[in-house]
Amino acid sequence: YTVIGGLNLQSTLATNIGFGQKSAYGNVNAGTAGTIAALTSNPSDLQFLVSFASSADQSYTEYAVGPLAMISGVVLQDDRRTVPTQGEFRILNAAYTLQYGPAVDIYLTPQGTGLDILATNASRPPPNYPATAFKTVTSYLQVTAGTYDVYFANTGTSDIILGPQPLRIQNGTITTYVLTNAANGKFEILAFNDGR
Question: 20 to 30 A Cα–Cα from 183, which one of 72, 81, 107, 144?
Answer without folding.
Answer: 107
